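Comment thread on ticket #2218

A.B. wrote:
> Attaching the input chain for the structure job we discussed in standup.
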Amino acid sequence: MESYNIEFKRSVEKDVRKIPKSNVSVIIEKIKPLSSNPFPSGIVKLRNTENIYRLRAGDYRIVYQVITESNTVIIHYIRHRKDAYR
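C.D. wrote:
> Ran it. Output below, let me know if you need it in another format.
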């Protein structure tokens, strides 16, 4: 299977600073497997988008884009579920 590069938008750094450290490790463990399989079970494609998906990590949501032509996964933001869709 092909390997995907994982890239982070600058806004992700701000998001991670706001998340309690105990939850950050859970989120990292959810992001790591995206490099080998960007479409794991449990993801949801966001409506009205071309290739943007949501992955649950406890009470947090990881919103990312998959670019299959360049084998890239771009993490757009990581936010608490109450703020993720605003």
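A.B. wrote:
> Thanks. Noting for the ticket: The chain has one domain: 5-80.
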